[in-house]
Write a structure and sequence with these properties.
single chain; about 240 residues; alpha+beta; 12-stranded mixed beta sheet
């Protein structure tokens, strides 16, 4: 299997009130490992600019066995599959110093034509040894919806939430979802599973209304922009 390995240490700024890694920070680490993986094969900013394309996350799910603490040294092992029907599966395992798995992340990436802003079924290039033909393993990508929703408030795509693409970064939606839930929910236990779908971007300066409700064994959170869903998320916490 063609894979990429990277070592990181959990920074203080990436921890929460439990001194555990924030779920959004976990997603940021995974996103960084994916970018570093691509760069080792020559796919840097100049490459994507020349090809008028970009990789974006369409949906992802995470299963957390044990949330790492601050100052822990972690190893991220990531690998991606060839694009199939416009989607590329990337699996990332987060290991502690003993080699035990802390988290498993199943991300589904899409390739976008940045000129006409449309999803491509296949990228216009091939990079030998970067992709795998098939990857074993996956996580459920279902979001358990519910109709009786409680409004959590309005969120602005502020400077701190937006990334180099000029819209809310995929990892920040987990922060928004956790902020939207009642405080007693996130104080009662740490996140153990989440699945999230990104329906449309929320550009810098725009707003969305966020709603939540209990659903299945956890919580459903949805953000709406101009009456359309911007993202949907399902979260389960330890008890």
């Amino acid at each position: 299997m063609n894979q990429f390995t990277e070592q990181i240490m959990v920074l203080n700024a990436d921890g929460d009130f439990r001194r555990m890694l924030k779920p959004s920070s976990l997603f940021r680490y995974v996103e960084q490992a994916a970018a570093d993986h691509a760069r080792t094969y020559g796919m840097d900013d100049a490459f994507f600019k020349a090809h008028h394309t970009a990789f974006l996350v369409g949906k992802q799910a995470v299963r957390i066995t044990r949330m790492p603490f601050r100052a822990e040294k972690l190893t991220l092992v990531t690998a991606c599959e060839q694009c199939k029907k416009g989607s590329m599966k990337r699996l990332t395992r987060v290991l502690d110093e003993a080699g035990q798995e802390c988290a498993f992340i199943d991300s589904r990436w899409i390739v976008v034509d940045t000129d006409c802003e449309r999803i491509l079924r296949q990228p216009g290039w091939y990079t030998p040894d970067y992709w795998n033909e098939d990857l074993e393993g996956e996580l459920p990508q279902l979001v358990h919806k519910t109709k009786e929703l409680t409004r959590a408030g309005s969120w602005t795509a502020s400077y701190s939430l937006c990334d180099l693409n000029g819209h809310v970064n995929n990892s920040c939606y987990l922060d928004i979802a956790c902020d939207a839930l009642p405080l007693e929910v996130v104080k009662a236990g740490s996140l153990k599973f989440a699945s999230i779908k990104y329906h449309c971007e929320v550009p810098l300066g725009s707003q969305m209304e966020v709603f939540y409700a209990p659903s299945a064994e956890g919580w459903y959170v949805v953000g709406r922009r101009e009456e359309h869903a911007a993202f949907e998320c399902y979260l389960e916490f330890t008890k």
